[in-house]
């Protein structure tokens, strides 16, 4: 009986040791994909700045890295509290997981419960890569259309005094995307003047969006996040967009926290 017990104990220890090795190996694989994303971003955005788009080759290179990433690679599961909303919440709160930010680029993850909304907002002078890691959401995006109708007068905007927010200006914008997206799907890319630089997200289910911005928002340099209200005009193939002040229309954030450590 003593010999059998010793053999059993040694077997249990070996299985426990092997289990620990598998967990360590899995963690190394997870970190390596995030680390690879960081290293790729560092190279892709090295010679870029506000309004400067990476070369087509570098855009495809970064897109390929993001296309192959999953929620497991960044340590997310769908049952985390970030993706749950309470019955009492009229507008579900959004969590942002900060992975990295420098002068050249930022990496982070938006964690959104069902029915969460990221309001229509812009990305001034930025190239943005967005990868839907899981879930289903509706995306609506626009590009400015200042030069689309050079020979036509600007349509009159009838804005009610009851509209929410302070109106700071009106500009014409062209609808770029108005569709539902479900993971797995390819990485979407927007550019400073194309690709739907202004967009809004409405989740149908819990979602996680991995975002890379180059360069990141920076208020002192004039790259602040501006929110908008859009409304259609009849007989136009484009939609008229009314600019709305940031302070009156922020997204409903639960907060932000630092995610995985990266070797910088």
UniProtKB/TrEMBL annotation:
A GO MF label: cysteine dioxygenase activity
Assigned keywords, A-Z: Iron, Metal-binding, Oxidoreductase
Co-factor requirement: Fe(2+)
Keyword Magnesium: no
Known catalytic reactions: L-cysteine + O2 = 3-sulfino-L-alanine + H(+)
Any Gene Ontology biological process: detection of hypoxia
Signal peptide: none
SUPFAM superfamilies: RmlC-like cupins
Enzyme class: oxidoreductase
Keyword Transcription in annotation: no
Record-linked CDD domains: cupin_ADO
This enzyme's EC code(s): 1.13.11.20
Assigned protein family: Belongs to the cysteine dioxygenase family.
Matches recorded under PANTHER family: 2-AMINOETHANETHIOL DIOXYGENASE (PTHR22966), CYSTEINE DIOXYGENASE (PTHR22966:SF59)
Protein name in the entry: cysteine dioxygenase
Upper classification of the organism: Eukaryota, Viridiplantae, Streptophyta, Embryophyta, Tracheophyta
Gene: LOC107758918
